[in-house]
Amino acid sequence: MKLRKTGRIAIAGLAVAAALTMTACGGDDKDSDKPAKSTTTSQSTTAEAAADLPPVPTVDELNAQLQRALDPNVPNEEKLEMIQGAEADPNLPTTLTQVYQQSGASIQVVSVAPLGDTISATTNFVINGQTNEVTVPFVAEDGKWKVQQQWACDMLTAASMQSPACPA
């Protein structure tokens, strides 16, 4: 049973790691402060929305940001914008980071697949010497890539934890 709890904790930590990493890569575009021109046609609006998506981060960019994202010394305030819906529970990033740290796991992003206004990150997640492939979904929100709220909530549930950000 202890192994199961460790695995659950590790998976929750993975969610945080990937979420924090991808968001950090998506928010540094200097041109993103310029307002987009509005049009009256739905085709133009759709194209404009696609143009407003943050750039898809590379595997190297995600891995370079990984240590910062998992660092318990990085202020929680910097991590709040990295998880969709975290404003409903300002402690959510810290909780997920602690779960990951306590698990002793490691994570490495191996591929990133853009899917319109979402991206899917495939990761190698190692816990207790075993490597597992875990897919982490991200959504574009406020010009940044954020870990999908439901996925973060699922990770907390797997670690037998709850958050006000997660529907009952």
UniProtKB/TrEMBL annotation:
Region (Disordered) spans which residues?
Answer: 26-56
Quote the biased-composition stretches of kind Basic and acidic residues, using this chain's numbering. 27-36
**Which branch of life, at top level?**
Bacteria
Q: Where is the Low molecular weight antigen MTB12-like C-terminal domain?
A: 55-162
Keyword list (alphabetical) reads:
Signal
- Listed Low complexity bias regions: 37-51
Give the signal sequence positions.
1-26
Q: Tell me which family the UniProt entry assigns to this protein.
A: Belongs to the MTB12 family.
Name by which UniProt lists this protein: Low molecular weight antigen MTB12-like C-terminal domain-containing protein
Natural source organism: Nocardia cyriacigeorgica (strain GUH-2)
